[in-house]
């Protein structure tokens, strides 16, 4: 099978969706004998030649300063679109409902390959965060929903993600397709854990709490800090490790300091902000060292970090009815609380003294929640085949027709025509240069040179006009 994977971010930017797409690409090639091409906005100085599959990087705009490091793709690039078209994909799988899905729709016009979109996160929240005029954010969200409904099939990473999609106006059908984990199942050996955590104030008899993710307020980090303050006031000792970076990092550090949770000249702190950790084995070591993972996010639609923790035998504290809490049974393979600092503090005061019980629940999490990327991509590959069979037999559910479909069609043909015109003009210039150089080299007189040149150019123009007429 030939699969075109599209996303609005790709290394050097690393995030959860990038991790998903790279695992799709790797396992489709290694385990399912598929050809893969990746399309993504271009980042300056990025080396796209290092991957075991072609990466087609199309033009982008520098919006990093207002979108926390992300660039905005410009999908109307004929040269890059032609490369994707030449690949001739059987399936187009887009992982972002913005520029990537516009590329997917244009590519579908040219190849007739079905478009599958995976809805990974609540993009509407980020749109409202970065686009302050309400009317502008409303229009952007409306356009995004239209882009999603134009796809042939929509996948979500959890049932809650699908319901969130409905809340912003999506009226189509969706299929839940869970993401996997690239951590191997099992805890890291004690020597590696000791080497990774050396130098940090982590007494062996003190419980360690962990958070991994973007340092941004809507992940529930303020709730964690307020709960930790109550924990400290109750006399419970602990260490809290935060791993990640994000736009609110300094704000969150300042809040921790104001609550007395950081180091001072007179007293040691209980919170450690490590910053981002990109080495997956180092992350596994931290998940192995911790006793409990705190993830009070109602923003995340799946929470890969919850499954990564489970892979290392680490149980999580999650918010009731959140997407990340799907599949969690309170007290069996994790903990479920209400979305308040008081509820988290009460739980921690109750469970932290019995660390052996925490580890037992962590083992249940490993046994019951772990899903490898190999198994996940196997499910996706199987569904790809079903979609192709449904398309072939005419059973694929008709997608909702969008007004923008006409624009996409016009844009696609317009891009092709512009390319043909550019080729025509390039040929014109080359002929002009060739004829002129040849006449001068052969010593022809000025009249002969001009006559031959005009004849040659007339032939070229006539041929070019005929080509454009046919195109």
Q: Over all CA atoms, what is the radius of gyration?
A: 28 Å
Share of β-strand residues: 5-15%
Percent range for helical residues?
40-55%
Counted beta strands: 15
Class based on secondary structure composition and strand pairing: alpha/beta
Regions with little confidence, pLDDT below 50 for 5+ residues: 443-447
Shape: globular
Protein model, in words:
The chain is an alpha/beta fold and 471 residues long. It is built from 16 helices and 15 strands. It has helices at residues 16-32, 78-87, 99-111, 123-130, 134-149, 159-167, 190-197, 221-233, 249-258, 280-289, 304-311, 341-351, 355-369, 373-393, 404-441, 446-470; strands spanning 2-6, 35-41, 55-58, 60-61, 72-73, 91-94, 115-119, 153-156, 175-176, 208-212, 239-243, 271-275, 292-294, 316-319, 335-337. Helix 1 (16-32) packs across helix 14, helix 4 (123-130) runs antiparallel to helix 5 (134-149) and helix 11 (304-311) crosses helix 13 (355-369). The longest helix has 38 residues, at 404-441.
